[in-house]
Specification:
Layout (H helix, E strand, L loop, with lengths): L1 E9 L3 H19 L2 E6 L4 H7 L5 H8 L3 E6 L14 H12 L3 E7 L12 H4 L3 E7 L7 E9 L2 E7 L4 H17 L3 E6 L5 H14 L6 E6 H10 L6 E4 L1 H14 L7 E5 L5 E5 L16 H13 L4 H16 L17 H17 L1
Parallel strand pairs: 1-2, 1-3, 3-12, 5-10, 8-9, 8-10
Antiparallel strand pairs: 4-5, 4-11, 6-7, 11-12
The chain binds 3-isopropylmalic acid and magnesium ion.
3-isopropylmalic acid binds next to helix 4.
Length: 362
Amino acid sequence: MEKRIAVLPGDGIGPEVTQEAVHLIQTVDGLFGHHTEFAYGKIGGIAIDEEGTPLPQATVELASSSDAVLLGAVGGPKWDKGQGNMRPEAGLLGLRKSLAVYANLRPITVFDSLAHASTLKPEVVKGVDFVILRELTGGLYFGQPRGRREGDQGLEVLDTLLYSEVEIEAILRLGFETARKRNKRLTSVDKANVLESSRLWREVAERLSADYPDVELSHVLVDNAAMQIVKNPAQFDVLVTENMFGDILSDEAAMITGSIGLLPSASLSQQGPGLYEPVHGSAPDIAGKGLANPLATFLSTAMMYRYSLNLPDEAKAIELAVTTVLQSGARTADLALPGESTYSTRQMGDAVRDALKRGVQQ
Ligand code: IPM
Ligand code: MG
């Protein structure tokens, strides 16, 4: 199969981890007889430095015309003082909007071999396997008007939480569909005791629920959801929520697994390329030192095979290779317990690629 993948390494550890993923894809090509063309683009801080904008038009065009987009990470202290659209994050948000990737899937899976690495007790995290489905192109992140203005008492600031019913329905429907393919339990997270947007959210969830009698729908307020995620995370199957709540809950849930360095994500549109990125940020403090964990990017690559390239066997082979390598005791610095020896980014990449070859050739 011939595919074109847009690679946007971005900032900090982004280039290191995406480079490992490119090697991984080349290994998959060799094993499964595909051919992948890589098209590189700039985004984030590096794009500000070199092109004067965090999202050059060339990057948008490259991404939209590819089969899938693999992104490293954006941001760093160097650009933290940038105003509004001159921040690296604005590049990422702009890319999400221009690809119309309204649905962000963040699987929270605890590998048995790492249950002890979590800050929660092993018996609480064992067997945790749920998905956070976050609305990604609406809500507070994009609502207009926003900004600063002069009010009666001086400076005022304004952000707008805006959703159309169509947007709410689209993400909730995907929530029901996702639950249907899993354990058939959908938890809709909102703040319906306070927010108007959440009240409509809840109404739409109730209405759609009639189309999915096989899926058990429950509603949880976002503050309670935050508590339940650390109290009893194994209760969840699929959590669906709006953009801002999903941003916060997904970082919280990521820590259950022991390291945010393991968490992949897929952002999907109704049609057109998906965007695949590790949940961890650009980690500027460890950039360029060979310390970064490439596994979140590898697992994001597996999601890319599954959702954008429609190659589930390739996805499973990568996931199995990651599981095998973790079982064998390989650890990057973020996963190692005190006294355990650690693998560099490249060594971890090599270990997974070797396990992939052994697994597929068996
Ligand atoms: C994420 C990140 C982004 C977000 C930032 C970098 C804009 O935190 O993907 O969760 O808030 O969506
Ligand atoms: Mg976040």
